[in-house]
Fold this sequence. Notes:
This protein is of the alpha/beta class. The chain is built from 18 helices and eight strands. The termini are far apart.
Amino acid sequence: MPNPALASAAVVKDSKRNWLIVPEPLNQVQSGRYDLRAGTMEQVGAGDAMSGKSDPFEASAAALGYLYQLRMALLVCVEHLETGFDWTVAIEAADDIEAVRDASTDWWQLKHRAPGTRMTDASSDLWKTLRIWATAVSGQQIDLERTNLFLLTTGIAPEGTVGSYLAPSRPGGPRNEAEALKLLNAARDNSAAKSPTVLANFAAWDALDQDQRLNLLKRIQVLDEADNIMKAGDQLQGRAALVVGHAHAQAFLQRLEGWFFQRCIAHLAGKGSGPVTGVEFDDVFDQRRNQFRPDNLPIDADVVDLTGEVTEHTEKTFVRQLTLAGIGNRRIRMAVRDYVRAYEQRSRWSNENLLRPGELGNYERRLVEEWERRFNVMVDDLGEDAAETEMRAQAKKIYAWVEQDARTKIREGCDEAFVTTGSYQMLADEQRVGWHPDFEARLMALLEPAAGR
């Protein structure tokens, strides 16, 4: 069942260009009540399950939980990729995360809670999870023989509680499903809660006989004190560093998360996208990784989608240069588009320190020198007495070379045409290149009066 909050979410970037999904309830996070980057929350209302009380900040906590769900799903994909391609991962399918591989299935319930939150035997996190899984058992929607059930929480399962007995064996004591069953039955029998949610939780539990309950508990693993959303991000960045190196890990991860979050939104919004498959994820992962090879630079999908508005650039020098050469409006629109894309992409490369020292300057030098060879030939061929019509005709030819043939790459693997054509527009804007043989004098006549006003 798609989560409506996520289905209506928007993908945005924070001040550090991290991709974030912002569901509607996250407005309270942005108001300062919660600090996403610090990963802290004032309170989340998780621990007193049986009271049935609602918390005024529960919506924001839920929003953070959705983000955590996506990040953890991405981490599951990365971990599965290490084993091969024959797997799928889905959000909000049978569970928060459903991972299918070979003959086994993993169901994940995720609980992102404030530091120090204790998951007691009466915890709503515990009982809501049991309700989901018990209902699946009653409805024969789950094959316990081939399904692993994980309750992962950033909270603590204190020793001697159900959570501790269902955790993987640890120094505090071994797993003990029988003891966990005894505690759960006692918690249910001793509760005086009357809220509909709590009663529904108990009803799902009551629908199972003792053997079914015990068999269910044998498939459950409680993973407490799990990494919060920020530490999960650190885990992903560590994996990214193994692939592209520490210097580029953050930039690589931002792009991978950007794709993954949008992919999940499309899936939850019912736009025909099924679960993420191993083959699909490997393909995207490989593409992103190749963009960070020493001979390449990343081209961002949202940059490729930029079109630019001609009306916002009519006073730009590069547009005036195109007008001087007699370039038509359709080609001017393309020039504006390429200028906007190249400007944005180059800015990102610079901001993310993806460029080598002096690389951009050296690239522009090569572009200018390529232009100079052709421009000087054109000027010599025209001579000093050329008519305006002939000068424009030659200007169109040299500009057509930029549009169709000039493909000097900043790096060998970075072959997007707009990088070259847009960079030429940026150089034309600085008057370092031009198309009309008399462009410097003509521009001076056009721009100086405006500058003097």
